[in-house]
Every structure is written in structure tokens, then in C-alpha cells.
Write a structure and sequence with these properties.
This protein is α+β, with helices and mostly antiparallel strands and about 260 residues long. It is built from six helices and twelve strands. The chain has helices at about 5-15, 40-50, 120-125, 130-135, 170-175, 225-230, and strands at about 25-35, 55-60, 85, 90-95, 105-110, 140-145, 155-165, 185-190, 205, 215-220, 235-240, 245-250. Strands 1, 2, 3, 4, 5, 11 and 12 form a seven-stranded antiparallel beta sheet that branches. A hairpin with a 2-residue loop joins strand 3 and strand 4 (about 90-95). It is globular, with a radius of gyration of 17 Å. The termini are far apart.
């Protein structure tokens, strides 16, 4: 049994219900959306049009809680440490298990997660303060419009993490190797360019301000698709913030090229 499978077993048993950042090193983590089949075409088209923010790793069959592309024993109804349930597009409740909410028309969509790049960054000697602090880090709605598709439209959501100035080039190069989990940053420095007015007031996640000698880097975030889905005022389920699906895919298997020295 792999470390990823052992981790999912711990989640199923209730032994782990916290963040997945720093957990199961070496394995790809994914955002999860469970949505009605009638919205799947527009949702997947929106993700494809905004692939840097919403890179799709796998799509399940309607009514099937498995994702064999990502692991043999995955059960999307109970293998995440936390779920958020939306009713009519609005957040309704947080759950540890959604088996009793499962419907025959639900489609599971796994979207690449930034956490999957953490191992490569650590191996490159890049400091990750959010991991040291045991937090997810801040995420912000921007004023940058995402590309619309069908009925899906909205603004880009980004994640921000601060890095030492001496680590910036390595952080860019390492993350560029992983386009299936967001890839390279889309912006660095001044948050006002993205319409972000206050780094101390993230829309999601926790505050993490750059220290002297650090600069903020911004990546597209899978919440871009979740926020667009909310506008449809439908029922759906997602992972709880920072509580991702740990898959059996190895991070090294999705790295496209070696970073420059």
C-alpha cells in the first residue's frame, strides 16, 4: 500500500481531518468538484478555457464515486478530510463525509492543486512559509475576467505565496514544470494590478504577508471554476479549503521538463 493509500485510509477512519498541505509527500493532490451532469459540459469547457487556473486531472462517470485515473481505491464521497456543500449556489454546510448526499447524476472533477509542487520546491531549496506555519495561505478574487464558456463566467481567483527574493527565479522555474497543477505564476509583485486592495483581507484562506526581503507570487486557482459554478445557483459539492484529494499519481510523473540551473 502506498503512502497515498495509507493517507486516504487515515482520512476514512477519521484519523486525519486537517489540511493536506505537507501530507503524503511525492503524491499529486487535487481539488474536487462534484456537480450535476447537466452542468458538466459547460464546467469542463470553462476549465479548459482557463487551464492555468483550473487544470483538469480527471473526470468521473456520472454517478460513479471512483476516479480510476487517479487511484484504484478512491471514493470521492469520503476520501477527503473535509467537504463544502453548496445549495442553490450558496455555501450551506461543511461535512466530513458526503455519502448520504450522493446522487446518480453527480460527476466528479479533479482539478490540479498547487500543493503538488511543494515537494519540488523544497528539493530546490525554496522556503515555503505557509507549510512551516501549517496553513493553506491566502486566496483572492481579482478583477481579471476569466474566459467564459457556455453559462459559466466570472473573475479569476488567485493564490498568493511570498518567497525570498533569492528564491524567486527558482520558484518560477520549478513551478513552470508542472502545468497540470497550475504551472508558473501568472503575476508577481504589486497586487493592485489584479485588483487586490488589501493583502490582509483574503477572500479565502489565511493571511500571509510578505516579510522584508520577500516578494509575493500569484498563481491561478481552481476556485475560479467554483465561483463561476456558484453563479448558476445549482447544488454541488467541493473539497473544504486546504483539504484536498490525495491521489496515487506521483508528482514526478507530471513534471514536464527539468528546471534550468
Amino acid at each position: 500500500m502506498s503512502d497515498a493509500q495509507r493517507f486516504r485510509q487515515a482520512v476514512r477512519s477519521g484519523a486525519h481531518d486537517g489540511l493536506t498541505t505537507g501530507c503524503a509527500p511525492g503524491f499529486v493532490q487535487a481539488n474536487l468538484v462534484l456537480l450535476p451532469q447537466r452542468h458538466a459540459h459547460d464546467f469542463l469547457g470553462f476549465c479548459a478555457a482557463n487551464a492555468a487556473a483550473c487544470p483538469v486531472l480527471a473526470v468521473g462517470q456520472p454517478g460513479d464515486a471512483a476516479l480510476p485515473e487517479l487511484g484504484e481505491d478512491i471514493d470521492l464521497r469520503r476520501d477527503l478530510p473535509g467537504y463544502h456543500v453548496y445549495r442553490g449556489g450558496r455555501f450551506s454546510e461543511a461535512r466530513r463525509d458526503v455519502r448520504d448526499l450522493w446522487q446518480d447524476d453527480l460527476v466528479g472533477v479533479a482539478i490540479g492543486c498547487w500543493f503538488s509542487m511543494e515537494d519540488a520546491l523544497r528539493e530546490a531549496g525554496v522556503r515555503l512559509r505557509h507549510v512551516e506555519l501549517g496553513i493553506q495561505g491566502p486566496l483572492f478574487r481579482t478583477n481579471v475576467p476569466a474566459r467564459s464558456f457556455g453559462r459559466m463566467q466570472g473573475a479569476l481567483v488567485v493564490s498568493m505565496r511570498p518567497f525570498r527574493l533569492t528564491d524567486l527565479s527558482r520558484a518560477r522555474a520549478v513551478t513552470a514544470r508542472f502545468p497540470r497543477v497550475h504551472g508558473a505564476p501568472i503575476h508577481e509583485g504589486d497586487p493592485a494590478v489584479l485588483g487586490i486592495t488589501d493583502l490582509q483581507a483574503p477572500d479565502f484562506g489565511e493571511v500571509l504577508l510578505p516579510l522584508p526581503g520577500e516578494q509575493a507570487l500569484y498563481w491561478g486557482c481552481g476556485l475560479t471554476a467554483v465561483c463561476a459554478l456558484q453563479a448558476l445557483q445549482t447544488d454541488f459539492i467541493t473539497h473544504a479549503p486546504g483539504r484536498m484529494l490525495v491521489t496515487d499519481l506521483l508528482n514526478q510523473s507530471i513534471a514536464e521538463t527539468e528546471e534550468s540551473p
